[in-house]
Amino acid sequence: MKRLLPHPILTGVLLAFWLILHQSAGLGHILLGTFIAVTASLAADLVIPEPLVVRRPLKVLQLIVLAGLDIIRSNIAVMLILFSPRPNPTAEFVEMKLELTNTFGLAILACIITATPGSAWLEHDRERSTVLIHVFDVIDADEWVETIRQRYETLLLEIFQ
């Protein structure tokens, strides 16, 4: 079974997306979506170096809700900064030391940081286990790093390590 479905979570997610995008759960869509999802899973096995192991699945839901709320809150904050009479936001490059080493966890953290308006993941140094992040408006860089560490990195550590 591992040879046919090397990444069963990926296969399931792709099939679900296929059915949602086509807004149909007809037999033809299920068969075609399954074929595409299994083919993509087999192709992904060639490039994904390690298996995806989720240790605490309920924490994934918590992370999705938390990141979604933070993205909405950040959208509002950036909008207020841009429309405020204050002339210059204090942009800064922040270097953050990471405990997270899992490839999937790092990819998810990069997506969350980059999807959050006002911040962008720029560079990851695997040897030093640090990440360089650009922040649009920094008041206290240490507080900003601690917020990422407490809100996202700890959850990702629980999920993947």
Can you describe this structure?
With 161 residues, the protein is mainly alpha-helical. It folds into two domains: 8-47, no CATH class; 57-160, Alpha-Beta Plaits. Helices cover 60% and strands 12% of the residues. It has five helices and three strands. Strands 1-3-2 form a three-stranded antiparallel beta sheet. A hairpin with a 4-residue loop joins strand 2 and strand 3 (130-135). Helix 1 crosses helix 2 and helix 4 packs across helix 5 (141-160). The model has no long low-confidence stretch (mean pLDDT 90).
Please give the alpha-carbon distance between the first and last residues: 25 Å
Overall pLDDT level: 90
- Low-confidence parts: none
Q: Which fold does the CATH topology of the largest domain refer to?
A: Alpha-Beta Plaits
Our Rg estimate from Cα atoms comes to: 19 Å
Query: How many β-strand runs?
Result: 3
Tally of DSSP helical segments: 5
How much of the sequence lies in strands comes to 5-15%
Q: Helix-strand pattern, N to C? A: HHHEHEEH
Form type: globular
